[in-house]
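yo

u said u wanted the structure for the complex thing, so here. seqs first:
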Amino acid sequence: MSPSIARPVLEWFRDLVGAGRPDRGLGLAFVSHNRGRLAAATGGIAMAVLVMFVELGLLQAILGSQSALAGLIDGDLVIMNSARTNLHEWTRIARIRLAEAAAVRGVANAMGVYESGMLLRNPPERRVHRIIAFAMDGQTQPLKVGDPDTVRRALSRPSAVLFDRLSRDIYGPISPGRTIELDGRSFNVAGFARIGPDIVMDGAVVLSDGAWLSADPNAQPVMGVLRLAPGAKLEDVRARLKVAMPPDVAVMTPREIYWREVGFTFRSVPIGIIFGAGVATGAFIGAIICYQILFNEVVDLKKELSTLRAMGFGPGFFRRLILEEAYLLAAGGFLIGLLAALITYRFLAGATGLAMQMHAGAALFVAVATGAMTHLGGLFAARHLGSFEPAELY
Amino acid sequence: MAPASALAREVPVRVRGVSYSYENGPKRVLDNVDLTLRRGEFVVLTGHSGAGKTTLLTLIGAIRSLQDGAINVLGLELGGRGTAAQEEVRRKVGFIFQDHNLFAALTVFRTLWLATGLTEEPPSREAALEEARELLEQLGIGQHLHSLPRQMSTGQKQRVAVARALINAPQLILGDEPTASLDHQSSQMVIGVIRRHLAATGASALVVTHDDRIFGMADRVLRLQDGRLVSDT
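structre next:
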């Protein structure tokens, strides 16, 4: 669009925004008039928005990765050692508990999940790297770690292993058909699983429980995943399990495990405080930037605004005008910040292996925080208008 | 005795015993000034720089707060009434400022339409557009309806300021050197527009000026000297 056409269109749109009310819709005209200031203001607010998004994204990614295992459980109930306060602590239960649980009325299946740290060597590389190893029955698959058929086929062979495709790349190139060593034993990579690293562990492999028990016949599971018989009521089965199991066995649903894990992560590491402070800092910076920009605007337009006061426009008009500008800056800054956050999330996900995802709840939270911070900045800037005396024009 | 509203209509401005001193000022800028402006009158207020002309004008326009004396504008007593009365007077008066102080971001039409927001029942955008177009045509700047201030000369901007003061058809027009940045022909045109407005609406105007070219177009010329009204011709 040529400038000669663009200008009348812009003017028409500016006037239209205030359609119906002559004293409304001026914010757009004021905000868009000084393009340098507009760029600085939206850029500054976008930066504050980006800070908030990154802090929230990292918090969600950490919480998500720490509790990811709970999301992989493919069952109705889980039994685990009651001393096991979080999923990264491998306090085990006696294997006999699986048989005892399977005998409880309403339980169709009780499947053991084994988990431990192992040392992985990817020949000809000589160095070893620590990796998490899971073991389970490939037929019943108590954990959803990938395509069921691939998992079933792979875990039917005792020397086969599934490598987590989302593992960090410290392990070197690993693809199906390759032979790797786990704690000195050779395994053939039969395919890929999808589990994902967390802030402590870099990757994972999945073995069959047969391979696990052949290496250590006395191995005990970290949890038992139970599937209910058709028609069985979860709470009834849970009650029966509590009676049947000794007191050191806890009975929980996968969802309860997930929220317990989120709560534990929040409490044990002060990430809530750390990232919360980051979000608050972002919002504070945004409010300061918004205040500074609008304050400069008010000072620069002192004579014009004083003229309007001399004409009879009251404090409400000026407050509305400044807030209108503040909201427009907030909207522009939020959209740019959101775009920048999506790009940053992509980069961070690639660099850390953490699941950085934009959630609607987080976007809504940041949008509200952006509106609040610019509202605050606008109100403080508008306060200066109260000190303007039209008599100062003379 | 005439009712107050009828009196206000016939005498839109009554100034009684008004004195004014600036903070830290050595002397009174206004000293016991009495002044009456009648319905339909076009009055010029002149005098040397520092005589107190603009101070008196801004007191009448409720831009400055009264210290001593009493001022009644369009039936509203300014003395002791506070900000609410001041804002009401400001809304009812059409004030032409010496510096036009137009917003760089607003087109001429948007400036005029904004001013209509001061009325109790603002006109629609379309009605305001028609009104603005007509007024600007009368002032010789009809082609600048959608111009920004930077696209206009100082004189044209001053005429926009005049249009802004007239758009709400006020009952009282106060002008502070409204022709200062205009050539003779433009001055004649602006004063002519103001006079036509007075004739059509019965409004009154008080204009502070040094421009003796417009004295002849006034009904009365008041002269201030050292804060006192010394002549009324």
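Chain A is about 55% helix and 15% strand. The beta strands of chain A are 77-81, 107-121, 128-136, 160-164, 179-182, 185-193, 204-208, 223-228, 249-252.
cya
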